[in-house]
Design a protein that fits this description.
Structural class: alpha/beta
Protein name: Nucleotide-binding universal stress UspA family protein
Organism: Nesterenkonia sandarakina
CATH superfamily: HUPs
Order of helices and strands: EHEEEHEHEHE
Family: Belongs to the universal stress protein A family.
InterPro entries: Rossmann-like_a/b/a_fold, Universal_stress_UspA, UspA
């Protein structure tokens, strides 16, 4: 395997567990890891505090989430980077993976069992439409 591994995160504990499994795979396969968070909000918000003003967007928030996960995954010798992608989570992850030349997407198995599986899951959508291999990590708490 030569292309990077892409893992989707959203700040949840289950996504964190998937990211740790993705890190372990990337390390064993000696490939780069891209930690990606999706956002659907393309708007930009201006936040004022006294004379200071900040410009905040959905992309900024998604990137912040990915960066927080990356901080917890840092491993010597592993190339790891944070990213954000616009769109619904499954579509955004697949688009990002295609642009990055990823050979593997790692997603957690959240919402894949029980009554909520009828509503669909990111893992289900990614596994049926990705142009590369997909690893569905068991993220249920032990």
């Amino acid at each position: 395997m030569t292309g990077p591994i892409v893992v989707g995160v959203d700040g949840s504990p289950t996504a964190q567990r998937a990211a740790h499994k993705a890190r372990d795979l990337a390390q064993k396969l000696d490939v780069a890891l891209h930690v990606v968070s999706a956002h659907t909000d393309a708007t930009i918000e201006h936040v004022n505090s006294g004379s200071d003003q900040w410009v905040v967007s959905g992309a900024d928030n998604a990137l912040y989430i990915a960066e927080q996960v990356v901080r917890g995954l840092r491993t010597p010798g592993l190339k790891i980077q944070a990213g954000s992608a616009q769109g619904k989570p499954a579509e955004a992850l697949i688009d990002y993976a295609e642009k990055a030349g990823a050979q593997l997407i790692v997603v957690g198995n959240q919402r894949m069992r029980g009554a909520r599986r009828v509503l669909g899951s990111v893992a289900n959508s990614v596994s049926h439409t990705a142009g590369c291999d997909v690893y569905i990590a068991n993220t249920y708490a032990d």
